C-alpha cells in the first residue's frame, strides 16, 4: 500500500481488520493507516484520535508499505478466505490509499 501526498481522513480513526475462513471467525485487529515517519499532529481535527495500540504499516525498501491484516488457518478443506479493512467507529470521508495487492504468506512456527 501507499498513502498519497494528498491523502485525507486515513489517520483520523483506527480501522478494524478482519480475516475469516468459511463460516469460522479468524482474527480481528485494530489498525492505524499512518506511517511512523509521516505522522502528523492533527489536534485541530475534531475526529482525530490517538488511541494507543493497534497495528501500523511497515515501510519496505521498495517504497511501498505493508500491514498485517490477521491470521487464519484453512486446514485441509477448500474454503473461501475473506479479508476486510473497515472503519467501524466513525464516518470520516477518506481518500488517498493506494492498494496494489494482497499477499498471503505462510506463518512459520
From TrEMBL:
<feature type="compositionally biased region" description="Polar residues">
    <location>
        <begin position="20"/>
        <end position="32"/>
    </location>
</feature>
<dbReference type="InterPro" id="IPR025886">
    <property type="entry name" value="PP2-like"/>
</dbReference>
<protein>
    <submittedName>
        <fullName>Phloem protein 2-B15</fullName>
    </submittedName>
</protein>
<feature type="region of interest" description="Disordered">
    <location>
        <begin position="19"/>
        <end position="59"/>
    </location>
</feature>
<dbReference type="Pfam" id="PF14299">
    <property type="entry name" value="PP2"/>
</dbReference>
Amino acid at each position: 500500500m501507499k498513502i498519497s501526498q494528498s491523502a485525507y481522513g486515513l489517520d483520523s480513526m483506527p480501522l478494524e481488520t478482519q480475516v475469516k475462513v468459511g463460516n469460522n471467525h479468524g482474527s480481528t485487529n485494530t489498525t492505524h493507516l499512518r506511517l511512523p515517519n509521516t505522522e502528523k499532529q492533527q489536534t485541530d481535527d475534531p475526529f482525530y484520535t490517538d488511541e494507543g495500540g493497534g497495528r501500523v504499516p511497515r515501510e519496505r525498501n521498495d517504497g511501498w508499505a505493508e500491514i498485517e491484516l490477521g491470521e487464519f488457518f484453512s486446514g485441509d478443506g477448500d474454503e473461501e478466505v475473506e479479508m476486510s479493512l473497515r472503519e467501524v467507529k466513525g464516518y470520516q470521508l477518506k481518500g488517498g490509499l493506494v492498494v496494489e495487492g494482497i499477499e498471503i504468506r505462510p506463518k512459520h512456527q
